[in-house]
Write a structure and sequence with these properties.
single chain, 219 residues, alpha/beta, Rossmann fold, five-stranded parallel β-sheet, three-stranded antiparallel β-sheet, 47% helix, globular, binds adenosine monophosphate
Length: 219
């Protein structure tokens, strides 16, 4: 399986689709945001710094981000491919990522841009709920993906929580950051010739089917 990178604005379904790819093709899902959320629980200097950055919707410093990415990609389970979401998020990170991959003998693989309108994202962000035990993602504003009880996980019975950055103020900052910093990397990968566009509007299954149409022949 080739490596897969998903690029998308906040709440476009990167995490959900990456989980589905990970399960279907048995490759690890590397979510840089999840790794940062874990670190933010620590009462260390770096934990406190990341906690503040996460709730503001800004980006973590590149030096810290590179360390986290390098350490994760060096793990054994990445040898047969991985799906990465949340990195790279700006052109400097994209160039650095190309170098990291070269240095560990990996290829970029597929770069998939999930395309979706801002209005849909705003509605999603308010309703997103995540299970604190198994990480399953629900949306109370989407009947197809709503949990049966508002704060209980249908998969494992765990408690559902709302991310600290899932509010309109942080969303506006994150969306603007996406337009300013992340969209230029789409052009970068288009020029390299590895970019695929996927329509991100529709049910989780519909979007996953579109992704499978691109990566499925690799199984
Ligand atoms: P995500 O779960 O991908 O939406 O990421 C949540 C937050 O983690 C972002 O708003 C950033 O504060 C931080 N983060 C995730 N990925 C990166 C990255 N590649 N560079 C810097 N900060 C990041």
């Amino acid at each position: 399986m080739k490596n897969i990178m998903l690029i998308a604005p906040p709440a476009a379904g990167k995490g959900t689709q990456s989980d589905l790819i990970s399960k279907k093709y048995k490759i690890p899902h590397i979510s840089i945001g999840d790794i940062f959320r874990d670190i933010s629980k620590e009462d260390t200097e770096i934990g406190i710094y990341i906690r503040e950055i996460l709730s503001s919707g800004k980006l973590v410093k590149d030096e810290i981000t590179y360390e986290v990415v390098k350490e994760r990609l060096a793990k054994e389970d990445c040898q047969n491919g991985f799906v990465i979401d949340g990195f790279p998020r700006n052109i400097e990170q994209a160039i650095h990522y190309d170098e990291i991959l070269k240095s560990i003998g990996q290829e970029i693989g597929y770069v998939i841009s999930l395309d979706i309108d801002r209005e849909i994202l705003e509605k999603r962000i308010i309703g997103r709920r995540i299970c604190e035990d198994c990480g399953a993602i629900f949306n109370i504003n989407d009947s197809e993906n709503a949990p049966t009880q508002e704060s209980v996980c249908d998969n494992c019975g765990g408690r559902l929580y709302q991310r600290s950055d899932d509010n309109i103020e942080a969303f506006n900052t994150r969306y603007q950051t996406y337009l300013d910093k992340t969209e230029p990397i789409i052009k970068h990968y288009q020029e390299i010739g590895v970019l695929k566009h996927v329509n991100g509007i529709g049910s989780i299954e519909e979007v996953f089917q579109r992704i499978e149409n691109i990566v499925g022949d690799e199984k």
